[in-house]
Amino acid sequence: MKTEPEIIPSGGITSPGGFLAGATGAGIKDKDQSRLDLGIMFSEVPCTAAAVFTTNKVKAAPVILSQKLIKKGKTSAVVMNSGCANACTGEQGMADALEMTELAARRVGVSTEDVLVASTGVIGVTLPMGRIRTAMPKIVLSAEGGHDLARAIMTTDTVPKEVAVRADDYIIGGIAKGAGMIHPDLATLLCFLTTDAAIDGDFLAKALRKAVDISFNMVSIDGDSSTNDTVLIMANGRAGGKSIIKGSRRAGVFQQALNKACIYLARANARDGEGATKLIEVNVSGAVSAGDARLAARTIVSSSLVKTAVHGSDPNWGRVLAAAGRSGAALEPDKLELYIGNIRVVKDGAPALFNKKEVVKHLDGKEVYIALNLNMGKAGATAWGCDLSEEYVKINAEYTT
User: Fold this and answer.
1) 336 and 312, same structural domain?
2) Is 283 found in the same domain as 262?
3) Spacing of C-alpha 328 from chain mean position
4) What is the domain count for the chain?
5) Is residue 351 located within the same domain as residue 254?
6) Alpha-carbon dihedral angle through residues 215, 218, 219, 224, given to the nearest 10 degrees
7) Distance between CA atoms of 221 and 230, rounded to whole angstroms?
8) Residue 274 lies in a domain
9) Which of these is catalytic: 48, 188, 194, 299?
């Protein structure tokens, strides 16, 4: 058996055995139902499940309901929609979220308590339940339907985000959406993960949290966080074998595979940020602690000044040091060493000799790498984001009009 997790080309959320998915146009995004916006993910057998949700105190109805339902650590299906967040919608919003689970439960033949719900889109608008009632029976579930489901959860995303990772004798699949209102502590994203591995519930929950902390919680597009963030994993055990438990070799391999899937999707979200033209990867090393490294990396990648400099291919490296300095991470200015691409621009906290044209050439690329060594310790972390463009302003200035 292979122990090094590998990405499966063209894989997705239904790559693991026993998972089906499908989507349809319900008229949530467009009244003419021209775009997919309603879908279901379903396991043919009940799943062990775990999830993490938004840390925003203003939570959407589907988040509140799913948080309640996931407490038992089991589920069989998730119904999801885009085009309407069902957030800040009061009692009606909660009733609509519950009805969504009821409609999906009837469609797949399970109890309502075994269906979770997720929504994304405009806040403060109620779901068009009449259209959803009509559309739900039209959803056709299949082993190939994951690709349609990845498209159905898109809002301002320009491309679907999908991944499948093979490890040992099982597969982890996933889809995600998220292009704006993205900031560490989940961001405005939906991510659904599946695996046919048999896994202990407590270990699954801890593994998901670890993976989220080094992936989705290290992405920032615009500094705003959302009301609907949900990352869910379902494990149905179809691959067979003993249950994966904490401390085993198989647990280590599973964590590696889950990390790989989540980082892949997190990078895809960052690359597809609203109005983005470049992916930014920030690596901080030499920190006193992992917490400090994460803090510095997230602050740098979140900085509007860094983002705009990258957009304009301006090698204004002082913005990076300034962001690190206000991050709260322990550092000494005269120990800082900074690279843009593979070019050192700062040594011992002062300008290094470098070819400006070569730095600009790197900044002109589609992927920009920034590496900051604090030279204080041995801890490190990586964060991802994107440049901030005029198009981002245009998209968000006209979001509901």
Assistant:
1) yes
2) no
3) 25
4) 2
5) no
6) 130
7) 17
8) no
9) 188
> Does residue 73 sit in the same domain as residue 96?
yes
> Residue 64 is encoded by which pair of tokens?
């509140």
> What is the number of alpha carbons within 13 Å of residue 125 lying toward its C-beta?
15
Instruction: State whether 245 and 298 are in the same domain.
Output: no
Question: Measuring CA to CA, which residue among 23, 21, 48, 22 is closest to residue 35?
Answer: 23
Catalytic annotation on 188?
yes
Cα torsion 87, 220, 267, 156 to 10°: value is 40
For residues 166 and 53, give the distance between their C-alpha atoms in angstroms, rounded to a whole number.
26
Tens digits of per-residue pLDDT, 210-265?
999 999 889 875 444 567 788 999 999 999 989 999 999 899 999 999 999 999 99
Measure the CA dihedral 120/123/127/131, to 10°: -70
* Interval 86-141: pLDDT, tens: 999 999 999 999 999 999 999 999 999 999 999 998 889 999 999 999 999 999 99
Residues 245 and 318 in one domain: no
Task: Enter the pTM of the model.
Answer: 0.88
Specify whether 204 is located in the same domain as 260.
yes
Q: Is residue 1 in a domain?
A: no
CA dist 332 and 325 (Å) reads: 9
